[in-house]
Amino acid sequence: RMDQPTLNTSEPSPLSSEEGRMVPLPYLSAEEADPLSADPFVLVARNAIEFCRWLAIESTALQWIQVENLLDEPEAWATAARKGNDVAIDVIVSDPASQYAAIYRLVDVRNVRPVRVTIPVVEGFLKSLRLAISVHLPVRLLPGQPGPEAIGELEEALEYYLHDPMVEVPVEFFHSMLALARGGSGPELWVATEQDPDVFALPDWTLPKDVGFVDQHIARLVEAGAECATCSWKVVCRGYFKVPDPEYSCAGIIPLFDRIGRAGAEMKKDLAAYGSTNKAATEGSIDENS
Asked: By C-alpha distance, which of 36, 26, 32 is closest to 50?
């Protein structure tokens, strides 16, 4: 969740309960949000005035601020870099191919509060991803339904994440999927990208907000004979890439997931080998000292 120091996603806990079910975390505009609320919420800031005002407000209900269309406002980031409250911010990079240089404005902000960068997977997004990682900012990728060029960059981004020694921050959704692939625990794709409407009541969510939407969505796809029916990643993905177009082909996505799976298996094997070696060395040391 965004309340973690790295702004990395994890499996959320219920915020409150209605008839025993989880109530989605609401995303509220500055006009809708009440700093005295007892119920958790995310503030969506779309102009510098409301963003800076909420940076000075103490609110136990405010989970984080989602900042939209403000990367080109240097005065806003100068304000955010001054110590006020310590609320976390999630910065949406609306045009990652052209706005990447503006990510530098977040470096000073990172020194006083948790910051994450959210980047849509569109052609040219890799520039923003590399720059965010280079200045140690956690990243959330929103893959959507990427075209061929964006899939090529997504493959390059994954190899960069897996192998470049400069990568020291989590990149979602890679981070959670890799944890699952190596046998650990972590959220499935809808939650890792923070787009499950049962968990996050997003302000721009255009699909039905019915309880259990994701369950119903994947069930419909399987029943219709979509490629999800036989996909080995069905349990993790649950039809994520079939929204909004259910006919979208995952031909470019499945190899990416398979690469994550192989990397996770390799890590699991290496960790097991390290554990065995370390255990043998420890037992040998005990024998020598007996």
From this structure: 32
